[in-house]
Design a protein that fits this description.
single chain, mainly alpha, globular, 7 helices, 165 residues
Length: 165
């Protein structure tokens, strides 16, 4: 079962990547302008996070009631990913001095922490509505959505503990 799910997830990721690259080629052909490397990276990151979210949602097998809480979580993850890619691009700007690059990295890390808090807050109603099997799946797969994997898992697990008190 897990192999089938992994194959499905891999196929979804490949399909998303192909559709994103097809979109980029079509858009470039229509405007006669080639997308910049930064634009391509943003599109690839968006396609990747969409595929991961789709795989997570499929793996959770949400009920109709749980489905209502999915939207805010999905939006928080997508917004965080967009902000992360833009911050990384700013940090990697070749015109920055070493000190400016360090400042950009500090800004990115602070924003990443704030985004993680937003994701956890958006995940709270969804996570609390999940059964134990779904919670395990949510933590195992959800942690791959953010760079702060261990911190995500810790914060989400803490939601279940604080609810039990």
């Amino acid at each position: 079962m897990e192999r089938t799910l992994l194959r499905t997830l891999a196929a979804a990721a490949a399909g998303a990547a192909l559709s994103a690259s097809g979109f980029a080629i079509t858009a470039a052909a229509q405007t006669d302008e080639q997308p910049t490397h930064a634009e391509l990276v943003q599109r690839w990151a968006q396609a990747g996070i969409e595929a991961q979210l789709k795989g997570l949602k499929t793996g959770l097998r949400l009920t109709a009631d749980q489905e209502k809480d999915w939207g805010p979580f999905e939006s928080a993850v997508e917004d965080a990913e967009k902000a992360r890619v833009l911050a990384l691009q700013k940090e990697q700007d070749t015109h920055l001095s070493p000190m400016d690059r360090n400042a950009a990295k500090a800004d990115r890390l602070a924003q990443s922490q704030a985004n993680l808090e937003k994701i956890v807050e958006a995940a709270k109603p969804l996570y609390l509505s999940l059964d134990n099997t779904q919670k395990h799946t949510f933590i195992a797969r959800g942690r791959m959505l953010v760079p702060e994997r261990g911190q995500f898992a810790k914060e989400i697990r803490h939601l279940g503990v604080s609810q039990a008190d």
